[in-house]
Amino acid sequence: MLRRPEYRRALVFCGLIGIPVSLVAFWFLVAIHQLEQLIWTDWPKDLGWDRAPWWWGVPLLLVAGAVVGLVVARLPGRGGHIAAAGLHSGGITKGALPGVLVAALVGLPLGAVLGPEAPLIALGGGLALLLASLVRAPQTPASTALLGAAGSAAAISALFGNPVVGAVLLMEVAGVGGPQLFAVMLPALLSSGVGDLVFTGFVHWTGLETGSLDIGLPEPPPLDAGDVAWVLVTAPAVAFLVHWIFVGGRFTAGFVTSRTVRNTTLCALGVAACTVLYSVSTGRSPAEAALSGEGTLGELARDPHAWSIGALVAVLVFKSLAYALSLGSLRGGPVFPSLFLGGAAGVLLAPLPGFGLVPAMAAGMAAAVTAALRLPVSGVVLVVLLLGNVETVALVVLAAVVSFVVTQLLPQGPRVPAPPGG
Length: 422
Description:
Layout (H helix, E strand, L loop, with lengths): L4 H42 L10 H18 L22 H11 L9 H18 L6 H20 L2 H12 L4 H28 L18 H31 L4 H23 L11 H9 L6 H21 L5 H15 L7 H17 L2 H12 L5 H17 L13
Helix pairs in contact: 1-4, 1-5, 2-3, 2-9, 3-4, 4-5, 5-6, 6-14, 7-15, 8-11, 8-13, 8-15, 9-11, 10-12, 11-12, 12-13, 13-14, 13-15, 14-15
């Protein structure tokens, strides 16, 4: 294939596409971050509050629901993919780009419990096709799929700050290998994780060295049998929670199919009610139950003791409900809310005898993001890079595989309804 001139030209063009797509992705993410900071932190302080008051999300999410509902009902592309159906790399046309941008730039900063990854995938793929049409590149079904995947990968890499995550995620999302890919990959992933677990255990137990790629970074506390045992309990529990959140999201998607503007607004107000109940019951900021949870996850990891058991339980309950409503009605991606819920569950379970904060958060996040995406390899790569901790890789793999199996065996609930017209 590399000897074919048309493939080499496509390869060069895909490399060039990465430049404008990554620039657009950068400014898109900057806009989302700055708007969230302005709306949820700066404005409340400017008005004299230490943090956003309990009612703050109600008018914001009312606007978000109305605008996203109008985009879905009136603009081409319906604002992008429905998050309850997971991530998708195709199906976005050039004409859908304005709707994707409006739905994301309004809904996400105003409190939708979704992340920016799905709009980025849509923007990257749509921009790649737009650039290809501007330079009048030959467009066949194969070249369209290739260019769309390349643009999406460039955009998603800008979000995660790592090209490996973008490439692996898009390979699994695109489903090039079909069901056979998972049939081969899952046993190999599990076997490699168990092998690493056994190997690491024998190194600690015997004190013998076999040679390694260790470059001298400080070592975290070694894993023990308690960590493994608790992962086998934590992963199914977290997977069960996230799976039923997505089932709720599919029911929500069915609800907003009819009378889209009204029902999308009602769902957004339901999200606002969750933020109100969380803030009133805990005395904390409603922003913790709203938004994607990306920033709050960092705060949780840096200072888990700032969260009481009651606050952790409350954020798991109310953010889960808000997440289910957002998945089926608003527009965005499912990655970061699932990571936050998995991390919060890990912090809640970390005090169990023989467990610890790092293993608990690693297992919780791996199980949650795998249950959300149904992409075990991408989940492992993403969580490992977030943790930056090689000692927990085996636990991450184990949690991801267990989560994937559990979510596949549970009742799947209704399908996400197709938009009017197909």
